[in-house]
Amino acid sequence: MTSDLASSLWHDTCQETPASSVLTGEVTADLAIIGGGYTGCAAALRAAELGASVQLIEAESFGHGGSGRNVGLANAGLWLPPEDINTRLGPEVGLRLSQLLGQAPETVYGLIEKHGIACEPVRNGTLHCAHAPAGMQDLQRRADQLQAIGAPVQLLNSAEAQARVGSEQVHGALFDPRAGTIQPLAFARGLARAAREAGAQLHDQSPATAISKDNGIWQITTPKGRIRARQLIVATNGYAQAMAGHAAPEIVPVHYFQGATAPLSASQRKSILPGLEGCWDSALVMSSWRMDQQGRLVIGAMGALDHFGAGIHKTWLDRKLARMFPALAGIKLESLWFGRIAMTQEYLPKIQKLQDGYISFGYSGRGIGPGTLFGTRMAEALVTGDADLLPLPVSTGHRLPFAGLRSAYYETGATLTHLIKDRV
Ligand SMILES: Cc1cc2nc3c(=O)[nH]c(=O)nc-3n(C[C@H](O)[C@H](O)[C@H](O)COP(=O)(O)OP(=O)(O)OC[C@H]3O[C@@H](n4cnc5c(N)ncnc54)[C@H](O)[C@@H]3O)c2cc1C
């Protein structure tokens, strides 16, 4: 099993294909953007709308990184609850970020509607489910903090959550009606298509191999071409490929894998997630499940599929499916894929200043709303010159001692959990 995007359900069912070409020869632009995920595509769209000339380059195909592989939960906020964000950023900056990200689903679903993006949008809310009775303490704490800043979240008891999920394996849930699900790859590619329609030039299969700044102009070199631009956004996040002249910020890579059933029968769909909420649980080694538009159940958990633990993860996922939804026991998961989440030390995304540019990274598993918002705001800040538009102040440096060890810690923990725990 590889990390090939083509092995994913999202690749098979993607209805958006942005027209793009390999960058050849020398081109000039007001703004060059490196990386064709949510951040880069949203930035390209906004900058082009504001009248800037934009060149957007992607090393592989649009949505190749986290944007094409994720669960598709369009959340209203970060992984951390508001008070934890305030502790790390200070109350003023923290509250502003939480409020901006609380509106991020509005931005995402607004863009989908405005540009007619064919990405299976469902805005029926999300359920953060208690994996055990003890999980309710964490959910209660989150509910209190979110309600204190005006978020319309609602705590569901065990019976209510079980009816919504269609499983006796959940022990309550935190319902967030602001959020929903999307087909993640199609959203990325739809954003790219919208950026092109707004005037941005799109180039796939065009990795930046070197960047430099000469006489105030950025030069971005690719195997067959070069961009000269006044301003630059680097949006390569957890999938950064090496560029001479640029040291990508360190992240902790954490892997997450998923599989999808065949479309469920009408009667199965009446009892399993009848309201189509997107779900994840409160377990330390987290799991998620959601439906796609064709009624496939997409289920996933922490872990990578490119090492000795792959068999353990896959066997565990079959067991998890059967335990959560006994009616689906024995159903084969038809596609299996995984992706790399870019975590930071504090589980918070970062924006760093470049000379005449920005780099953002580290959405720590919450990038649909945040990536779209950060890309949009970085573009606005560059085109208008108003850095106050950024969703949070720029940070300087991001040191992550032992990033490799931390990543191995998560992967080993997930493998051991899937090997030892939760056996039927
Ligand atoms: C398995 C998984 C599940 C997740 N689930 C969710 C979820 O349910 N909800 C949620 O909100 N978030 C989720 N996330 C996080 C979310 O997917 C990411 O935060 C988001 O996609 C980041 O977008 P991005 O544009 O910043 O980066 P990416 O989508 O990773 O894009 C970076 C792009 O840069 C390109 N690139 C790299 N180097 C170069 C170069 N040198 N030249 C040109 N291009 C380059 C890469 O090929 C890549 O396409 C999940 C992530 C994963 C991996």
Counting DSSP E segments of at least 2 residues, the number of strands comes to 18
- Bound compounds: flavin-adenine dinucleotide
Number of domains as seen in the coordinates: 1
Please give the CATH architecture. 3-Layer(bba) Sandwich
Return the structural class.
alpha/beta
Euclidean distance between termini CA atoms: 25 Å
The largest sheet is: 8 strands, mixed
Number of helices: 13
- The mean pLDDT is 94
- The general outline is globular
CATH superfamily: FAD/NAD(P)-binding domain
CATH class category label:
Alpha Beta
Please report which band the strand proportion falls in: under 5%, 5-15%, 15-25%, 25-35%, 35-45% or over 45%: 15-25%
Helix content: 25-40%
Task: Write up this protein.
The structure is a single chain. This protein has 424 residues and is an alpha/beta fold. It has a single domain, classed as FAD/NAD(P)-binding domain, CATH 3.50.50.60. Helix content is 34%, strand content 22%. It contains 13 helices and 18 strands. The chain has helices at 9-12, 38-49, 66-69, 82-89, 91-102, 104-115, 135-148, 158-165, 184-197, 266-271, 310-324, 368-384, 403-420; strands spanning 25-34, 54-57, 73-74, 126-129, 154-156, 173-176, 180-181, 201-203, 210-214, 217-221, 225-234, 252-260, 278-281, 287-291, 297-302, 335-343, 350-354, 357-361. Strands 1, 2, 8, 9, 10, 11, 17 and 18 form an eight-stranded mixed β-sheet that branches. A hairpin with a 2-residue loop joins strand 17 and strand 18. Helix 4 (82-89) packs across helix 5 (91-102), helix 6 crosses helix 12 (368-384) and helix 11 crosses helix 13. The protein is globular, with a radius of gyration of 21 Å. The chain starts with 8 loop residues before the first helix and ends with a helix. The mean pLDDT is 94. It binds flavin-adenine dinucleotide.
